Every structure is written in C-alpha cells, then in structure tokens.
Amino acid sequence: MDIFGGAPRVLGYPRPVVAQCGTVATLRCQIDGDPRPDVIWEHKSIQILSDGHYKLTEEGKAYLLTITGVTPQDAGQYICKAKNSIGETYAAFGGHMNEVDLPSDDKPRFLIKPLSLRVDRGEDAAFSCKIWGTPTPEVTWEKDGKKLNDIFESAHFSVSNQDGGWFQLKIYRTRMPDKGVYTCRAINCYSEALAGAVLLIEPVPERQESKIVSASKAKKFAVAEGKHAKFRCFVTGKPKPDIFWKKDGVPLEPGRRHLIFEDREGYYTLKVLYCKVQDTGLYVCAASNALGNTLSAVHLSVKGPAVRFTCPLKDVEVRERDVAVLECEVPNESIPSAWYLEDQRLMPSSKYGMEQKGTKRRLTIHDVGTDDDGVYLCEMPDGGKSIAELSVKGTIVRKLPRKLEVLEGENAVFCVEVESDDMEIHWFKDGFKLHESHQTILKSFGKTHILVFVNVAYQDSGVVTFVAGRSKTSSRLKVKGTFRKHCPPICPVGVKMDMDRPNSALLTWTPAPNSQTSTRSIFVVERQEVGSQEWQKCFTTETTTSAEIAGDSVQCEGDYRFRVCCINKYGRSGHVEFPKAVHLVPGPKIHRSLKGCEVTEGEDAHFSIELSATMVGTWFLNSAQLQHGGRYSIKQSQTKHSLVIHETCAAEDTAEVTFIANGVRDSAVLKVKHSDSDKRVDIGDAIVLYCEVSHPCAKVSWFKDGKELQVDDGLNIQSDGNMRRIVIQSADESHSGVYTCETTGDVIKFNVNVAVVIQVTSFTILCLVYNLQSSVSDLVCLRYKDGCEIQPGDNITLQAEGTMRRLIIRSAEASDAGSYTCQAGNNSIDFTVNVRGTRTFPTPVGSSTDDIVMESYISEEIHLQCELSRSSGKVRWFKDGQVMEESNNVQLISEGPYRRLTILNGSAEDGGEYVCETDGDSVFFQLTVKEPPVKIISPSESELELTHLASERLELSCEISHVDAPVRWYKDSLEVDEGPNLVLEVEGAKRRLVIPLTTVDDTGEYICDTEDDSVAFLVTITEPPVKILRKSEIKTNLKSMLSDDIVLECELSRANAVAKWYKDNCRIEDDERYCEEEEGAFRSLVILNAELGDSGEYFLDVGDDSISFQVTVEGTIDLVTFQLNAQEMMAGEDLILACEVSRANAPVQWYCNDKLLTSDSRTYIENWLLYDSISFSIKEPPVTFVHKKDDIVVTGYEAESVTLTSYVSKEGAQVRWLKDWSPVEGERFRALVEGHERTLTIEPLRRSDAGEYTCDVNTDQIHFSLLVKELHNTTVLEGEDATFKCVVSPEDVQLAWIMDNEPITLGNRFQADQNGLCHTLVIKKCQMIWCVTRSLRAPCHFYFCLVFSEAQVMFTKKMEAVMAEEFEDATLETEISLEMGEVQWMRQGVVIQPGPRYTLAQNGCKRTLTLHNLTLSDRGTYRCETLHDRTQVKLNVELCLYLKCLTDQETFERETASFEVELSHTDVEGIWQKDGIRVKPNNNWRVSTNGLVHGLTLSNLTLEDTGTIVFSAEGVRTTARLTIKETPVSILKTLTDVRVEEELPATLECEFSRQIIEVRWLKNGKEMKPGKNCRIYSMGRKRFCQIMQCSLADSGTYTCDAGEVNTSCSLEVYGKTVTTKLAHKYISFLQIFMISGLDQNAVFMCEVSLEDVTGEWYRDGHKIRPTSTIKIRTEGTKHFLLMCNVKAEDVGEIRFAARDVESTAYLEVEELPVSIVKPLRDRTALEKHRVILECTVSSPRCSAVWYKGREELVPSDRLEILADGCSLKLVINQVTVEDEGTYSVEVGEHTSKAKLMVEGEFRTSRLLYFPFIDG
Q1: CA angle 441, 443, 449 (to 5 degrees)
Q2: Which is the most buried residue in 872, 907, 1030, 1492, by most CB within 10 A?
Q3: Tens of pLDDT, residues 500-540
Q4: Per the structure, how many domains does the chain have?
Q5: Which of 1166, 1170, 1173 is nearest to 1141 (CA)?
Q6: Structure pTM?
Q7: Whether residues 1693 and 1614 fall in one domain
Q8: What is the residue range of 1419's domain?
Q9: Residue 255 vs residues 259, 273, 768, 1812: alpha-carbon distances, Å
Q10: 1569 and 1702: one domain?
Q11: pLDDT, tens only, 1000-1031
Q12: What's 1372's domain CATH number?
C-alpha cells in the first residue's frame, strides 16, 4: 500500500534561496498524490506562467521553478500549490517572508564604525571606518543630512581611503558650526549601509573685538508679556562664520527659555519663550570668521498687560520627589485664573493642587519629577500672565526638551546629562527599548548621553523616554512631512483573548469602523513579559484580524501581555492592550540549521543540526527514512544531531536531506559533482582541455608529463577572457598522459586517456553446417531477424561456401541490432547483435546546461557558442523557432567541438530565444539587444574643478557617445534655461554651456547629464584683482605749507573695491581734518589745514595692490619780539598777556612753567600757540579763619549726630580736619565745603568720638572740644505704659516732644502734663514698633531712649501626635501664654493658609488647625510657631487599604510560580518577603507593579525555594505558602525480559529521568540485597541488577521500584543442554563493554566449562601481554582481563581464545566532552608587534582548530599554534593591519571567538567618545 497515495502531500518543502542579481535561482518542491496532482506556483498572489523569465519543469515527484536573470523585484514569498480530485495542499517558505535576498558577503557592511569625537575649536578632527563589500562600495559623507560639498569649502575637509577597506574623513581647523552628526554612507550595486558619529567642538576662550551698538540705531521690536519673541539673522561667508548672540553685551546660552539654532532656510535664529519684562534689552547677533566680523542688533521691548499681578510668580527650585509651591497675587479676589505648564493647561488632580484664597493664587505640585521641570504661567482672563521657572534637581541634570520637531530626512538629536557617570541608563521609544543600529546612534560620554535618529521618516514620530534609575524624562518627537494630507490609522477595537488552548493564546480584534480602506495598513501585535518595560513585535498581518500566539514563539517561560496597533505609510495608531496575561512555555527550536553540502563523487557528505533541547530525531533522504549502518552514520550528542553519507554517488545529486524531531523540521540539498580531472577520448577525436582563471590578463603555461607544450600544426593554445584552452585537433595514442595548466601560485591537472576504438562499419554472421545423410552443398539454410526471413539487399549479402554460411550487413546502423537465426533443417543457431554508436550532446561553454541570458548593444558583434561532446557532431541553430541560415550578417562557425553563431552587426530585431540543437539535446540562449548607453567620452573625469575671473567667458564642454542623444544641464540641482547670458550649443557629439560674461553669482556646480552618465563641473568665479591704474604717473612725494590742504588721490581698476588709508602704519579714521572720499573708481584722502605733525608716510591698501605717499609739511612763524616786565598782582585779579606774529593764520601755543595751557573756565586763549616763554610772579594773601573763637565746646548724645563749623577767608581754600592731631577718616565722618563755610559732621556718635578736633589751613587753625553724653534708657514691657519726666527752667518755656525727629501729636496714646518746672510724657500700652528715641525740644534739649522688653509668647501646652484615618478630619490643638499672641501653622516650610481643606481657629489662648478630608499626602510633621517659641506634631494618616489575599501554591522544580495581590489604591509601595527576608529582584525573582496589581514571579524554582511568601503594604499583610516538589520521576528505559542459560550471568538494566534517586530491587515482591552472586549498582541515570551465576531458582519476576514509579521484567533460567561433546567447548561469551570517560578501568571476564584450560587474549588480532596497566589472571574456569586507565586508543575488538573455542567483545571508550574554561578575549595590538590569543580548555587531550573568519589557520613563519597542557595559544609575529578580524578556536563542539584590532600608522590615536550638546 502506498502510504503517500490519495490527496496531494508535500514530501520535501522548498528551502529559502539566496541568489545574486543577474544569476539563476531554482526553487524545488517534492509533492506526491494519487491521482497525480496539478501543480501551480504563485508569487505575491499572482500565478506564475512559463515565459522567458520563469521556467516550470518536473523531475519525477519534484516540481521546479527556475528564475533566470534574478532582479530585486523577484524577492518575496513563493507558494507551490497542488490539487487533485481528492484534495489539495500547498507549501511555502515555512510561513516566513524569506526573500530571495543577496548574499550577505556582498552587501556593504561596517566592520569598524566611525567613533564620536570631541575636539577644541581650531583642532583637526578625523573620522575613520572600515567597510567591506563586493564590489568595493562607493562611500559618501554627510553632515546633518547635507552633502559636505554644499556646506564646506573644499579646503576645509578631505575624504580619503586606504588599503584594507579603510575610509577617512578629516576636517581641518574645526569651527563651531562644524559640530553635528556625521554619517558615512556605503553603496554598491547590491545594497547600502549607514553609520553615524557625533562631533563636538569645545569653544576656546578668545578675545572678541566688540563693537558698541547704539540702542537708538537698532531696530525696534515689541512683544506682550508671556508671548514668544523670534529673531532671525541671515549671515553668509566662507569659511562659515561662528555666530554668537548677546543681550546687553552679555553672551546668551541655550536654555529653557532661550532657543538658539540654525533653521532650515539658513537663518540663525534666537527664540525667547514666554517673555518677561526683564527680557527687555538690546539683542545682538555677532558673526565672525577668519576674514572679519559683522553684527546685527534689535531692541526688544516687553510690554506688560493693562492689569498686572499684585505679586508675580517667583522662580522655584526643588529636589525630585519633593513638593513645589508656586504662588502669586491678583489685583482683585474676584478675578479667576488658569495655570499652564508652557502650552499645556493644568487641571486640579492628585498631582496638581490649586488653591485660591482672597487675591492669592497657589499651585502645589506633588511628587515632583524630572518632566515637571519647565515654565509655568498663571493667566488672567484679560491676557495678563505671570511667569516662573521650576527647576527640578535630581538624578537627571539636563532634561529632554518637551517636544522636538524635525522634517523628514533630517536627524533628530536628543541629549541628556545625569549626575554621575556610572549610572545604568536606557532609552525607549513608544515603550520599546532602543538599541544601536545603522539609523539609531546611542552614545555615552561620562555623564552625558546622546540619542540620534538618522534620516527620520514620518512614522518615526512618537514619545522618546530616557530612564536613569527611578528618574525619567520624556520628549515628543514630531516628524513633519512636506506635503502631508493623510492621517495615521485608527486603532482597532473589540480586542479579545481566548486562553482555552494549552500553551497558547488566540487574540482577536476588529478594525475601526471608520478606518480608511484605500490605504494599505497592517496590524502589529506586540508582547511584553510581566515585570518588564520592553515591548517586542511578535506578529504582523494585513488582512486577518486574529493571531494565535504559541509557546514556541517566546524565548523564556513566563507570563505575557499583548497589545495591537495599526500602521500605514502615514503613521501608527494608538495601542490597544488585551485583557489578562497568559503563561507561555517555549518549545524546541533550531539553534543551528541544516546547511547544504557539495561534495565530489565518492566523498563523504556531512550534515548536522543543533536543537534547543535534547530529543530524538529522524533523518530522511528523498523522503526515505535512514537507519544507522552501512553507508549511513547517524549520531546524537545531546542537542546536536549529525548524519554522514559515505561514498556518495552521482545518483544522489540534488537529493534532499530532511531532519524531523517533535515538530521541528529542516531540510538541505546534497550536491554531488563529477570529477573532471579524468578525460577519455577516442583516436581521431579532438582533445579540448580548459580552465578558468581569476583575471583576464593572467598568464598560464601548459605542460604534458612535465614538458612544456608549444603551439604547432596539431596543437592550439587559446586565451578568451578568463578562459584558457588547449585544443588537439586529432588525438592519437601519443597524446595520452598528464596535462597541467600552471599559473602563479596555482596548478590544475588533467589525466587524458586516448582509447583505441575499432570502428565497426559492417558485421558478418558465420555458421558451419554438418549433415551426415546428404551432400552438404545441397543443404538449404534460412536466415531470420527477429522472426522475419532476411532477403539479400544493397547492404545485405548471403554467402555459402562449402559448409560455411555467411550473412554480411554493411554500414550497420542502430536499427540493425536484434536477434538473428540461422536454420538448417531441424537445427538452428541464434545470434544477438548489438550496434553501439555515439550521440552528440552540446553544452554551453563555461556554463551550466541552464538557459543562458545575454545582453548586447546595437551595432556590436554578438557571439553565441556551445561545446559538443564530440567534434563530428552536427547542430542546427534556431531563432524563435525558425532555422538560422548563414547570411551577410550571420556566420555559423564549427571549430573542433565548438559551434558558434556570430551576428556581425547586432540590431534590436536580433533579440529573442536562440537554440543550438543536436541529436537529443539542445542549449537555449535568451538574447536581448538594446540601445547602447549614452556615455560621456570627454572629459573622462566625473568631476572637474574650474576657476574663472569675473567678466571672463566661461565655456563648459563635454563629448557624448551618441551624436543625437539629448543632454540636460543643471546648476546647483536646478535645470538651466537659455538666456542672453547663458547659451547652450550643440556641435556633433559635443555639448557646450557658454556664459559670455561671468559674475560671482555664476559660482556653483554645473552638471551635464545624459540618461546613463553625467559629469560635474565645480565652477568658482572670483573677482579680478584690484589694481591701481597709472601708478607710475602718480606723484608720491608731496610737500605742503602749514595750514594748506593736502589731497592724495589715485584711480582703481574696480569701482566697488575697498580701500584703506594708513599713516605711519596706523589706520586713518574720518574726523574733522581727515576726509576719505570715493567717486567711481577714484579714491582720495583730504587733509585740511595741514600741520607739521601731518608729515610722514601715507599708505593706500586695496587688497591686491598698494601705493605709498611721502608728505612733508613746511613753514615758519615770525614773532614780533617784545619784553614784558615782571608784575605783581593780587589774587582774584585778571592777567592779560598778548603777542604779535607775522602771519594771521599762524598757529600758536601758550605755556606756563613749561606746561601747555588750554582754554577752560579760568583761562581764555584767543589764538592757538606761542613759542616764547614768559614768567609771571603773583603773590596771594594768607588764608585765615574768620569769626574765630577760642575753646569752642560742643556736646552731643550717643547715637545722634553732631556738626563742627568754621569759616575761611578764601572760598577755594583747602582745610584738613584732625582729631587729637590725627587725620579724621571713616564713613561716619563727612566734611563739606560750601563757599567760605567748612563743616565736619559725625553720625552716629560714639563715646569714643569725644576729644580735641582741629581745622587746619596751613596758615591758620581753629580748635573744638567734643563731649559725648549717653542717653537715659527707659525699658518697659510690651503693652505697659512708659513715662518720661524732665525739669525745665523757666516755668513758662515753650517745649515740644519729638519722636524720631517728628513732633508727637497728643491724644489717647500720648498724654503730656506739666507741674511747675516738671514736664511729663506718658505713652499708653507701648508696642514694639515704638522702640525709638524720644527728645524734648526747648531752649535746651533732653534725649531719652525708650527700650521695650517684649512680652514673649510661649506655648503652655505642647501638641501630641495625632492618628487619623484616610478621608476623615484631623484637628491639631495647642495653647499659648498670651491671649493676643499671633501664631502661624506650617508644613514642610510652607505657611498654611485658611481654605476649603484647612480651618484655623482661636479661642482665648487656644489655637487649632483642622484638616478636612484627609489624604495620604497629608502625612507629615506640622509646626506651630510664635516669635519666641515653636511646637510640632506628627500627623499619621492611616491608609484605608484593602487587598485580595494571596493563595498557596504548589509546583515542581524548574517551574515558575507567580503571586499577585490587588490593592485598593495605586502608588502604594509594597514589600515582598520570603521567610522573613525582603525579596530583591534578580534574574529568577521578578517584582512588578501595574496599577493596583502587585506581582512576584519566581522562575527556575528549586527545592530550597519552598517557604512562606509575605506581601505587606501600609499596615496590611497577606501570606501564602509556596511548596516546591521534586519533578516526578519517569522511566526512560524499562526493564526487558531476559532468558539465560543456567550458570551464566544475567544483567537487568533500566533508566530513570533523574540521577539522584533511591530504588529498591524486588524479586517476586521481596526486596533483594547485594551479595556474592547479586550485584546492584548504578551508572548515571541507569540502574543495574546483575546475577553473576544464574540458577533455576533465580527465575521469577524482578521489579525496580523508585517509589512513585516502577518497572518489572521476568527472568527465565533454563537448564544446560546435554550433548555428546563435553563441556570443554562450552564458554561464557564476552559482551560489548563501554567505558564512560577516560582513565577508568575495564574488566573482561570469560568463563569456560573446564578448569586448567589455557587461554589467550587478543585486541584487534594482536595478542595482549601483561604490562603495568594490563593484568591477566585465571580463577578456576574464569579468565579475567583488567585494563587500567583506558585511553581512546584502547578502543577495539577484545577476543578470548581457548583451544578451539573463542569469544569476542568490543571495548568502546566514550570521551568526556571537552569544554572551554577560559574563552578568548578581544585584543588590540600595534602594527609590527607580537600578539598572543590564548584560551584554556578542560582537558589537555583534545584537538583544537584555529580559524580566522572561515579560513582554517596553519602554522607558518609568522603564525605559531601552541598547546601547553590545557592552555591553547595562537601567536602572530610582526602583526599587520591585514591580520585584523575575528579569530576563533574550535574544540570539540565548543567554539570561542575574539576580535583582533591592529592600529596602523594612519590611526595615530584611539578615538574617544565625547558628549554632543544640541545647539
């Protein structure tokens, strides 16, 4: 019965195929069914039909899909469907999207990525990377998404590459704008790769030339308070300038309210957010580079609202987890207000508390986190705002921006800074943990951490979160599209989870009702392990709305949650989470899959597969199950399975090898190659030997039997591209031998055998006839072929000669084969004739027998060629089914075994399918003839740099390969249009762009573009150098007279040139006498009213030219000589001096005692200068004191002031004040001058100020005696009366009472009385504010000092701790000593104000605070304070908490247990304990919190984990018992029934699932004990019971009992058989003996029937002799062989021989697996040094193989492979850069890898990571 009959069934599943572009890919699927099914192939839901690109074929039960000329569009999933009348099936690539992909070795990839840098401004920066790819990829560098050529001048950077795949970008003399993200893009024909790095530029302090900008000249800008102000400044220059923003001369740094950036239009932008009045000022944008600097200024005015806040908000700084309070005051208590966090409206919640008391408005922020850091606003309805900044100090020092907006294609940069550099940090996006990739850069520099998204797309929008410990900061990333009219999809609805199926969950959902159907969307299901923050994608689908998640899809056992969202090209919808969580256990998986094997015929083929768990598997070859033995060797070592097929044959080529084990299935293809080195030809045939070399220019030499061959008449040596051939036209016996083709470093051999063949062109059948009764000649013979009589013909002759009869057939053909009969009378004889011939098989040259796809261009010569199996074969050529004949354009050539079709001049009509056909075989060619690409012939370079001067003619020219091909010209990526100043010319194959008159604006990149090629011209137009015209005609030596005007003038070559004038190397600035003038191209300097000092060298600098002028000013002044007699004058009189000069305009100067005189308030000079000196002598009268008195005594009171006054005779006289003849100094002394009055005021007076004071004017003095008296203090208590008395004479004097220099108004508080000379002032109920000085003003003064002794307000009753429950009221009460005393209540330093939740009351001396509707946040310490005392009390709010209790759990070892508690409150911290010890999370113990639910998951449990689990939170507690049981014991191998002969040993064996287990052996229910004849032992999991010498009584039922399980068997012992030959031939046979592990002992015992019989032991046929490790002994009839410390080489056949009997056993030694104890480590070495890679293994007896990549290493001059005991070493001497790579050592089944880095000369230092701060 055919088990595969009936419905179609897949025998061999198709495997993923990897193919290169342009090659052939074959998909193979084996399907069987009865009746034979119809099979179709589909790709992307479209049925595939046979055409030029696809070919469908069948090979028995195998169905093949062949794809010729593979393109990237062919990638995807292919489905093979089979259907017959009974059923249908299909096969795909395992249900996965295994695309027809490119080989990973050819794609570009970064072996070493560029590292981020931080350099000082002005230093060079270099990025290096190592890239692999075939062909070598093209590498381009970009900065922030822009090409470097677009933003940098060519001299600022260089891009280079070096051998070994190294590429480098170097930036010279870095500038501040150079900082940013640099990306390296590697592209080849297969794919592209991307890597990025960050460059930080540290500013270097340098002196800035600051220009003073007048605010009156700056532009004016006004903004309302609370609004944003944005300033934009457009600056150009090369090199790119550095930009600095300043406010009122102080540099601005980026911050919370100041954003500084360069926008997408090239504007440098400063944005001031939420402007305050303090932001009013002058803002300056300063730009500078190496060639100069400039600036632009604007004045910002911030206008306040019409209604202002009475008390505005103030900035606050708090720590994380604290409470922040913002408070302000509005003008009217009826005005409502709203709170904002930047642009987000805040509402009252548990997070934000909002209070309103009278005009005060308060915002309380509880549990402050990092994301609460920001700008807060309180806004009134009329638009008035009060602004404050909240700074949160904590783990994260620098936070993420609240949001970040970027355009598609740009880079998104996030930067944070934490307080310490050893913190564990994580980045998340939309809940997914981020990892480093080619488009995601994660960098850490100490305390600074950076995240960069490279080339963001619209779907990258989302929430980015940075987590450091318990702190986190978030930012919303918004990616803007240029034209975005569509919206992201809507999240699905109706989610359900079905958990009825074991170890799986069925998830279902429904698309949103109003979701778009026109846009392709996919559903994405994600999973999250309970206790983890990371979500992982696990399922995607376009159409289905359900997904079954099985345990096989998870990595580890645990509880999992799921969520689903919808994604289309416009974005992602929100996530919808499925209810509940499901427990999943992972199933078996393939860790290392099967790989195809390609061997030569006769070699062994090796296949291996490694699973995730140990299990039994089955091997199949073409659906036939394989068994161990013969040609097939099947082994299993734990999780590794292997198959070896010995001596493969050609019939097994393309056979499918399949492995199946417990739901795991994998297949591979076996390819068997024929050996081409042996070649057999017949005499006369042509010998063609060919090989292919790697390079078309490689030279080879041909040898025969060691002798080099030369070209002669019969031997031709050919070279065609990479093919090398030798052709011998006609072979003979001498051509047999060994032929070799040798090239540098390689050789290939051919064994040629020329066979002697007798060509049969006819044959003869001969027979002899004998007849004894009649004449032989009369006997008639009849001849038959296949039963038909043969008649003579053209090629058939019948002959009879005597007894001879012949049948001759000439020119035999295949049809002549058959059975021939010669019949004579009753006798006959039969002949069987076989006619053998040769068939001709064509094969394409240098290719397989598959279709050949060729491409050619029009007008080219096309060659189609194939090779026949023999030279005489004939072929026919067909094109699209039509026979090809020779013509003028088509040639059919035959050369030895080669047949060639040549088309001399190809055209588009020549494309099609060509067939070379011979007898029984054919070769197909798919030819495509297309237009040749339009190439640019000249210039040959792809990029040229041109420099022209302005106003010159610019001509850009290129020559193309096609005369009439169109081209397009572009300037800076924009297509150019012809105009008056731009001409496009066409002349034959040449194309020109001509600009007759160039300007600087014509600078740029010009591209001449065809459809297939382009060339770029980098044109730089510079202004011509500025020259001074007619320089030789200019008079440069000028002489001028005093007071004349001097004019220096010249003409320049350009009217817009900048000219600078210098005098004696100092720049001349415009003033009243120097005037710089410009008129067209003329530049002049005018010096007005020349002076002698104007003589010197004048220099004009115009950049590219200069000129010097030598100016000399001459002239004299004639004075009229006169004599002025000396005069004496009184002080205060006027002095007039006059002189006369010879010229009216002559300058003069006046001097007094050699000091130059200038005009001032006392001196008037009519003319300028006088050169003669005149002496004057004026005597002044001495200065004296007027109204002078002797012994002036001044009295003052302490703490008051006193003034000393004197008068001098001259107003301008200077005086000195002395105390006790020492100068008076100090802040309390103030000397004043007013006309003739001189005063000294001392305030306040001290007792030490008493003494003698002197006022001195050098010529006179006046003295004062100062007495300081102490005030009389009056001390009263607050609230008492104060009384002041004084006695004044006379009685009727008018007096006034003064308090602090203010007259006292008498009334209820102040009462004055008089009794004779006694005056009294009484102050009723004094208050502290009156602690002042009182005085009585009369003709004399009395001073009193009133001092209050404050009545202290003390607490007479301290508060006691208060306990209250949540949601109730609590009252805090205390008592003070004074009824009128004031108190204030405080909590955490914040004063508590009356409100809805707080009631403050007083009753006599009692003071109370009542808190209503208590919450947990009200817990804490409350303080009540007076000015002199304080008391505090602790308020404890008991949580009104309830929970769902834990339940006891019981499970087995290595399982997982989960406990969950549901509380009534969120944000409650719970504590898990086990056996009284608090649980700390680790890999096996996970603690999680999700809202109200607290969970504890314990995985990989052991017996020691049994105990009590306790959960406690806020006074509530629940417990549960966790019980861990041993995993139930199971029987892997049961006992089997044993039948044994009497006196022979018997062994009972079984195997359990655990090693450590107690068992009992029972016989017939009775427990057995070890004894002399009974041996009970164990080996690993196996248990043995061995009866050494069985007797009939030993028969019975034996049981091995492990408690939970048991296994039984029967032992039957039968008696000896009685024979005539006695027992000397009876022997107890040896059995196979296996030793597990080396260095153990092996014991063999053989028992014969007779004693004193000599026996001998043999191993593998060699006699064993006793040694130190081998012992042989005999005990009666028993013979023993003991082998100590067995080795692997002791394996073999052990044989015991005694007389004519023998017994054989096999010794197998199973080596313990070798493991790597200490793996390899990554190493970095300097070039030309020595490096050692070392690892340690567990056993010295092991074989190790070293690899570099996939190449096996062998010892050489530079390479040493050493083994020192358990240490394995690889030593590389004189290491080079080429030695870089991944090295590995393979020891048994274990492999260790390490990377070797070699620092070459071009890498001078290690690159370091530094932080990047987004500007």
Answers
A1: 120
A2: 1492
A3: 877 888 999 888 876 665 567 888 999 998 877 788 888 88
A4: 15
A5: 1170
A6: 0.31
A7: yes
A8: 1355-1438
A9: 6, 10, 123, 15
A10: yes
A11: 888 888 989 888 888 888 888 888 888 888 88
A12: 2.60.40.10
